Amino acid sequence: MSLKLAIAHLAIILLFASAATSLASAQDEAVVIEDALVRLISDVKVSASKAGRLELLGVQEGDTVEAGQQLGRLQDTVARIDVELARLELRIAEEKAADDVDKRFAAKSLAVAESELALSERATRRAPGSISKTELDRLKLVADRAELSIEQADRDLRVADLTTRHKERLVEAAQAQVGLHEIVAPINGTIVEIYAEAGEWLTEGDPLVRLIRTDRLRVEVSLNASRYGSGLLGRSTRLAVRLPSGQRDVEFNGVITFVSPEVQPVSGKVRVWAEVENPEGLLRPGVRGQLTILPEME
């Protein structure tokens, strides 16, 4: 029994050693895949953010656009009027916030009332009974009311300041609504399909154009999962593609950016992606070529 156990242990050790050697050799060797498929990385349908009539369509198929560039615009007359109304309300609020007349008037009224009260109190001390208690109480009430008027004026100014800030946010919200009428490109790319024309009604989420990015493309292959794994990440690649008749064969440099954590149960293979640069647009999505995953030392 001990001999059989020792043999079993030895077999397991040899199995792991063989797997480690296989993986190590896979990292040191070039991997050539003959039927690598080129795909898009970014393929976007750009949609309307809200419902409205398409007033302007500023692109056509084949146009190259940059991220943030306007592709179209919905009719925004009402939204722009709302912005103007919000700005007017803001100006009114700013005028009120800057108006401290009530506070200055209340301060002067308090000074006069306090002066009258002080004179009356001195007169009463010099000649008791010369001014009635009722009159003294009235003068004190006038001074108290002037003091409360100052507090009220301060409160009104604080409320006016808050109102101004509130109106500023309303202006921003109205401007944002105008922005929602613009349909802009989310990425750099090329317009390949247009789904609506100027004058048509779009509901929220309706696509206007299809936009693809071709300056950087993905190459997809499947490799034997028993030999290749996450160690491929970051490895340099070279894609060779035969261009249409009359043009030369071209190579494109890239790098492995994805190794799937899933193994396909039937084939025992794992999906691997490389991303390649395509600055001149010579490489087209959908073509196939030879992908070489270069050794780590290269």
TrEMBL record:
Keywords: Coiled coil, Signal. SUPFAM superfamilies: HlyD-like secretion proteins. The keyword Signal applies. It comes from the Bacteria. InterPro entries: Beta-barrel_RND_2, MdtA-like_BSH. GO terms for molecular function: efflux transmembrane transporter activity. Residues 44-208 form the Multidrug resistance protein MdtA-like barrel-sandwich hybrid domain. Residues 237-293 form the CusB-like beta-barrel domain. Pfam families: Beta-barrel_RND_2, BSH_RND. GO terms for cellular component: efflux pump complex. Residues 1-26 form the signal peptide. PANTHER family: HLYD FAMILY OF SECRETION PROTEINS, MULTIDRUG RESISTANCE PROTEIN MDTA. This is Putative efflux pump membrane fusion protein. It comes from Stratiformator vulcanicus.
